[in-house]
Amino acid sequence: MKQYTIAILGATGAVGTQMLQCLDEQEIPVGELRLLASARSAGKTVEFRGATVTIQEACPEAFEGCDFVLGAADDAIAKELLPEAVKAGAVVVDNSHAFRMDPDVPLVVPEINGADVAWHKGIIANPNCATIIGLVPTWPLHQLAGVTRMVVSTYQAASGAGAPGMAELEAQMAALGRGEELPEPRAFAAQLVSNLIPQIGGFKEEGYTSEEMKLQNEGRKIMHLPELRVNCTCVRVPVLRSHSESITLEFERDITIEEALEALAAAPGVKLVDDREAENAHDRFPMPIDTSDQDLIWVGRVRRDISNPEPNRGITFWCCGDQIRKGAATNAVQILRLLIG
Ligand SMILES: NC(=O)c1ccc[n+]([C@@H]2O[C@H](COP(=O)([O-])OP(=O)(O)OC[C@H]3O[C@@H](n4cnc5c(N)ncnc54)[C@H](OP(=O)(O)O)[C@@H]3O)[C@@H](O)[C@H]2O)c1
């Protein structure tokens, strides 16, 4: 079997570290692995499949001879370095926002538009994490009845802000537990422990944030629905890992609850957890504590939108998914799987 030379740019971060595990779990045939990060991490070592790999400082020359590069760094670093990887002949799957809305770059969730990888010109983008988590269960319902509008509230974990976000919440929880004064917030705009922060990203059109607009803009591109309308509110919550979302969908054709449940139960990448009678809350509906460190989007609380004047044109549900895995690393490695066949 052909073995590939694969680099991870941002290999020491929350997403990059998870990518290593996903490469192994998805049995990607890795010949040589190059782990790239900032000068701060150069020289540190990481274990992969029983071998010790030394982290290198990222630079254009590091991509020479690479077949694939997985991007797990921020937008500015992605913009600076990933075109160099393409010039060196590699195919890039990038997690940052840098290339997502470029018309020459496919934006791919394999369960939805895996076929789009075919028209890449060197870069394929991984969508925003909340977008992936919301769209994986929306897609099978769209296929049944044609979604026209989404109203979404997200409850996003601290680790969505990377390793520094996770460390900040852990430090605040520890200080609170010891009864000490909380450290100054740096990764977030305010204290996160015992709090919610209703702003993720900068403010853009009409008071919506950049994170909130991604769900509409990226959703349109992924689902090939240029007219899709999305109203989204994104909230940072004091959960370490795994995002949750409340989603109401409006459809152009009728859809019954029974049809919706059947479609969700059969949908790839989805696990239906929806049993109002269950004694244990963990079997009644999805919760982020149960969906951390696994790859499926769990869906529950599926019900009719009783505010929709058309009785069978609206469905409301709740979903949770690990945004470092399916919202980032798992999805990127699934794209790599599609590329290598
Ligand atoms: N966290 C999530 O849930 C999530 C989900 C979806 C998408 N994303 C996106 O994925 C990307 C990575 O996010 P993350 O959460 O993993 O961030 P992170 O934990 O902060 O990691 C950032 C990575 O970038 C590296 N880096 C920093 N400066 C660099 C430089 N000058 N040259 C090369 N590498 C450098 C860091 O290396 P050092 O350790 O050496 O500083 C680290 O490996 C971002 O674009 C983010 O928007 C994140």
TrEMBL record:
Phosphate binds at residue 100. It comes from the Bacteria. Residues 5-120 form the Semialdehyde dehydrogenase NAD-binding domain. It comes from Enorma massiliensis. Substrate binds at residues 156, 236. Homodimer. Pathway: Amino-acid biosynthesis; L-methionine biosynthesis via de novo pathway; L-homoserine from L-aspartate: step 2/3; Amino-acid biosynthesis; L-threonine biosynthesis; L-threonine from L-aspartate: step 2/5; Amino-acid biosynthesis; L-lysine biosynthesis via DAP pathway; (S)-tetrahydrodipicolinate from L-aspartate: step 2/4. Its EC number is 1.2.1.11. NCBIfam families: asd_B, PRK14874.1. One of its GO terms (molecular function) is NADP binding. Catalyzes the NADPH-dependent formation of L-aspartate-semialdehyde (L-ASA) by the reductive dephosphorylation of L-aspartyl-4-phosphate. One of its GO terms (biological process) is diaminopimelate biosynthetic process. SMART domains: Semialdhyde_dh (SM00859). Belongs to the aspartate-semialdehyde dehydrogenase family. This is Aspartate-semialdehyde dehydrogenase.
